[in-house]
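Hi all, posting the design record for the shared folder.

TITLE: backbone redesign
STEP: 1 of 1
STRUCTURE INPUT:
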């Protein structure tokens, strides 16, 4: 007898079946993955995938990608690009269920059921919604407001309890926890209250020296598909100072470079650099070249695997098809459970 012990996003980790807990995570299809996605989410996905105590579900969040302006003509290619990035980064269809969000309609159905317990005012006060309104003042649509409710459904459809995402997703996880609490209190369910799974690279700075790395900001990101020469060119544009000062900068381009050094060169090298800054000075050209080499060393095997996958797209399509079937099977069980207690079945 299997005992279910109920325990999501950018997405998130789920219920336990016996000794195994489920994990769910996802990334939007608004461009190819960059270092921020890789270090902040995918590395966490890989760690959980390799842990035998977890059953991992990883999706391309295509429905979450269409609440802002996008190009329908190349959207399917963009979705497949994320799948290719997942696979080339090391996600293994033998160990993880890899699927596309819109191919599992239970997410949308469940989100509508959850929307009955959360208010419009709560959604409007989310800092992430306010930021999107500023970014897209001509496109403040209902899907943008609804984003956190659908995300809660993404998570709770698989009863995730742990979410390998960046700290910027914490407001959305709070909504997922509120939805779970309200559904549990009102209908006697036992949905989990998901928590964030932090990674060492959960905050990867923008190359502009302002904010975090993002697909939507021009000149901000290094893509997983970038060549060594492209990485060098991108890093060359990071703004710097004279290389010397009384105290090490905590923001701006120099701080960004030191963060990259921490992520790719290690703590000892960062300590050396900080000491150089307050004494002999840092030669930024040499440092940028050193960081570029270290980044490319990590990305090169990913790019090699991607080249092989691009030569066998039929295999990639089979992985997507099989993953959707596995995900629907799990999510449909949760939908039936919720509909029964709500008097819909």
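Okay, here is what came back for every position:
SEQUENCE:
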């Amino acid at each position: 007898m299997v005992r279910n012990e109920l325990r999501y996003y950018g997405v998130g980790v789920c219920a336990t079946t016996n000794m195994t807990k489920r994990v769910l995570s996802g990334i939007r299809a608004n461009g190819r993955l960059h270092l921020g996605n890789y270090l902040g989410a995918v590395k966490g996905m890989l760690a959980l995938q390799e842990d035998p105590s977890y059953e991992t579900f990883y999706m391309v969040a295509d429905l979450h990608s269409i609440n802002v302006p996008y190009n329908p003509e190349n959207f399917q290619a963009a979705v497949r690009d994320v799948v290719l990035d997942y696979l080339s980064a090391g996600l293994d269809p033998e160990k993880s269920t890899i699927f596309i969000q819109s191919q599992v309609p239970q997410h949308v159905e469940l989100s509508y059921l959850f929307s009955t317990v959360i208010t419009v005012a709560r959604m409007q006060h989310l800092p992430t919604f306010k930021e999107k309104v500023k970014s897209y003042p001509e496109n403040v649509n209902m899907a943008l407001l609804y984003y956190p409710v659908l995300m809660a459904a993404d998570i709770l459809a698989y009863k995730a309890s742990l979410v390998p995402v960046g700290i910027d997703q914490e407001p959305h996880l709070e909504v997922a926890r509120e939805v779970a609490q309200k559904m549990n209190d009102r209908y006697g369910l036992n949905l989990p209250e998901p928590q964030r799974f932090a990674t060492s690279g959960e905050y990867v700075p923008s190359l502009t020296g302002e904010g975090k790395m993002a697909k939507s900001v021009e000149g901000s990101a290094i893509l997983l598909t970038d060549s060594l020469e492209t990485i060098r060119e991108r890093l060359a544009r990071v703004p710097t100072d004279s290389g010397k000062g009384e105290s090490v900068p905590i923001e701006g381009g120099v701080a960004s470079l030191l963060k990259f050094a921490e992520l790719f060169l290690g703590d000892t090298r960062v300590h050396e650099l900080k000491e150089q800054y307050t004494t002999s000075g840092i030669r930024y050209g040499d440092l940028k070249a050193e960081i570029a080499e270290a980044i490319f060393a990590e990305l090169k095997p990913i790019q090699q695997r991607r080249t092989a996958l691009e030569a066998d797209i039929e295999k990639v399509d089979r992985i997507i098809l099989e993953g959707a079937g596995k995900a629907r099977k799990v999510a449909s069980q949760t939908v039936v459970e919720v509909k029964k207690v709500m008097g819909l079945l």
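COMMENT: The CA atoms of residues 5 and 16 lie 5 Å apart.
Let me know if anyone wants the other runs.
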